[in-house]
Amino acid sequence: MLYSCKLKSVCNLPVIYNKKINTTGTSNTDVPLAVPGMYQLDITLRRGQSLAARDRGGTSDPYVKFKIGGKEVFRSKIIHKSLNPVWEEKACLLVEHLKEPLYIKVFDYDFGLQDDFMGSAFLDLTQLELNRPTDVTVTLKDPHYPDHDLGIILLSVVLTPKEGEHRDVTMLMRKSWKRSSKFQTQSLRLSDIHRKPHLWRGIVSITLIEGRDLKAMDSNGLSDPYVKFRLGHQKYKSKIMPKTLNPQWREQFDFHLYEERGGIIDITAWDKDAGKRDDFIGRCQIDLSALSREQTHKLELQLEEGEGHLVLLVTLTASATVSISDLSINSLEDPKEREEILKRYSPLRIFHNLKDVGFLQVKVIRAEGLMAADVTGKSDPFCVVELNNDRLLTHTVYKNLNPEWNKVFTFNIKDIHSVLEVTVYDEDRDRSADFLGKVAIPLLSIQNGEQKAYVLKNKQLTGPTKGVIYLEIDVIFNAVKASLRTLIPKEQKYIEEENRLSKQLLLRNFIRMKRCVMVLVNAAYYINSCFDWDSPARSLAAFVLFLFVVWNFELYMIPMVLLLLLTWNYFLIISGKDNRQRDTVVEDMLEDEEEEDDKDDKDSEKKGFINKIYAIQEVCISVQNILDEVASFGERIKNTFNWTIPFLSWLAIVALCAFTVILYFIPLRYIVLVWGINKFTKKLRSPYAIDNNELLDFLSRVPSDVQVVQYQELKPDPSHSPCKRKKNNLG
């Protein structure tokens, strides 16, 4: 047995001499039994050399695990984008039996995904000399591919015997360990280290303006450049600018600043190549600690290991917009704090900080009937609460299918059309956390102060999984600010799952687009039938309407007709003649897609066929995405007029009324003149302004039919009703 004394205290031990030690990829089972007793093993993890590349960029993000007797006792920090990482970290371990070797495993870190295996080795502790520093070189191997060269790890180790009072102390530690279901440092890492950094202290606002004189990577003397940004776990990828060495991106995004002293933003430029690995153009960094706060900095960064410059605008803003507290500490239950929050978002403060739209408080109370993810028939659940790029975690409740968290999360709302995502995971010691269930709740659908039992859904949000979660949510926002923010681009998520090829998804998107196109085709057939006099009465009515409209047509009638259509649908809804139909076709296809995904995953493990033909895959994914965009565009227009989101439909009515009045009273030439002057002078007035289309930004907030199905609440089992539960407790 062994126990960890101290983790990650950096220490430099002198190199005494090199010694050859058995470090093959398989354990030595012929080692004689060591004399029983306690030993202290001091290990300095120095560096790695020539490690395996696991990322598409030809690098890896390696970290190292030490295990003895099947238990993880140390995990190093992650070194990003390096095949020759330098750690210089020290671990102090207490070992009871030297017969069990030290198992060294190296992984490539992938945020939100399963980490990639990079090799392993065993260190035979019986071959170490006592009280003598030893430099050890271990050769990494993969048991499945023993001939592959996976690099080496350099260590410095010292083995020291411990006697007397040390043995008594470790026996106490041993007892406490046996009472724990998980290794204690692992629990500390997930509950404290991972959770605390998610309380961010500021915002780094970045505007990627342009690139200048980038390196030509294609045979035509040009490139198709895009840029990747990384700050800790946060990532952003710009759009691809085809065939240029001087791209104009004009993209704006925000990172969260978790450390008061700042941080380093890693920036890499790439050339997009269809059908093969993207070419590396260059890299640079931004040291945020060198930038002053509350001030916009224009940076021209020289690309290292390449050619050219990147031009950026960077602004650091202090903030404290997210928090975690216990249920007893509740902002909205304190009358003074509630009054202060209501005052901050009152109609009188419309133009004060337009980015601060509202306040969200989420009480994560408990979950019931969760899926058993461990072999013991239990789970170790914790909960992740996400609002756009704000991501907070609860503590882990071990060995429990009915956990109680009783935590309160608060967020500032930047977009009232955001969707709150609450996901329950099972903590796993040696692997990525297991998914247990998820719910997605649009902020505009929340009923304030109501404790509700939400049925957990699968990853695709298409059907139920096991368990329910009890949440109580409050939203306070300024409607005018929310309306104005609707007309600017949506906030991009830092990390989104990459699109992958799916036959079912491709078919679903094709059918969705076909249905949108068929609406136009049927309308054309209907109009053509009027010309053909298939129905004389209908053709006569259409002819009279045509003469009347053309003779009296004015431009203001276009928004007025759309306004009448919205009003007509509204009266149909309030009169009970709701013409909105839940799209069962989309629901059925989403369920089929989930089954197909499982099947595809199993097939890919056996064949890996799609991964071998990158060019065809990328073309198919592009077609799949285009079909999705076209179908979603048509569905968003339909759902605007169908009052799927009343807030947006009312906003459309206000805008159409304004356009009708403007077009009625102001001649068209004046409107075009103002529009043209604004367009021509925009770059002169604001050289780094980011162009946007207000109409498309508005439609991006309207959910497509697929999203309507995903956000649809499932009816919980009546036995999970909070009221019934309270009665049962009283009984």
UniProtKB/TrEMBL annotation:
The entry's keywords: Calcium, Cytoplasmic vesicle, Endoplasmic reticulum, Endosome, Membrane, Metal-binding, Repeat, Synapse, Transmembrane, Transmembrane helix
Record PROSITE patterns: C2
Subcellular location as annotated: Cytoplasmic vesicle, Secretory vesicle, Synaptic vesicle membrane; Endoplasmic reticulum membrane; Recycling endosome
GO biological process: regulation of neurotransmitter secretion
Bilayer topology: Multi-pass membrane protein
A Gene Ontology term for the protein's cellular component: synaptic vesicle membrane
GO function terms (MF aspect): calcium ion binding
Keyword Lyase: no
Residue intervals passing through the bilayer: 540-573, 647-675
Subcellular location, principal: membrane
Domain of life the protein comes from: Eukaryota
All residue ranges annotated as the C2 domain in the record: 20-138, 184-301, 335-456
CDD domains: C2A_MCTP_PRT (cd04042), C2B_MCTP_PRT (cd08376), C2C_MCTP_PRT (cd08377)
Similarity comment: family membership: Belongs to the MCTP family.
Protein name per UniProt: Multiple C2 and transmembrane domain-containing protein 1
Species in which this protein is naturally found: Neophocaena asiaeorientalis asiaeorientalis (Yangtze finless porpoise)
